[in-house]
Fold:
Amino acid sequence: MADDLDPLLNQLPALRRYALALSRDESDAEDLVQEALLRGHEHRRSLRPGGNLRAWLFGILRHAFLDRNRAQLSRRRREAQAAALTPRAMDAPQDAAVRLSQLRAAFLDLPPDQREALALVAVEGLTYAEAAALAQVPMGTLMSRVARARKALRDFEDGRATTPSLKLVGGRDADDA
Structure:
């Protein structure tokens, strides 16, 4: 078996040089050599007895290189098509973070009984009956609390909530006018 590998091992330096000449990157060249050796092993029966092992391996390596280039080109085309379909501008993630922070503050500002009811039903996914039993209130009371909490958050989202407004430093508030 070791004798079978000697001719192959003798070709490794030449395969590495050829792969490096094709790929211009040492890491890619090593990958190409490995791929060529694997393909060569898988198709070893296609080498004619007494055939030129070096030319056969070089051909396999070249085809592996071309296959990789085609795959990269295809991937770049798909990425370009996907990029063309996506919007060019997106809302700044800071805006969403600020809005989420404001909504969280509005949730935390709810009266404790409403906050508890909404958390149990909307966040934790309990049924009204389960949440009512846990909060130790009648189911109708829990449903009312959830409805009032949702209305308060909807009002906040619609700008109808009575939340403190931002004040500009050095500016004048409407109350001061």
Notes: The chain is about 75% helix and 0% strand. The radius of gyration is 34 Å.
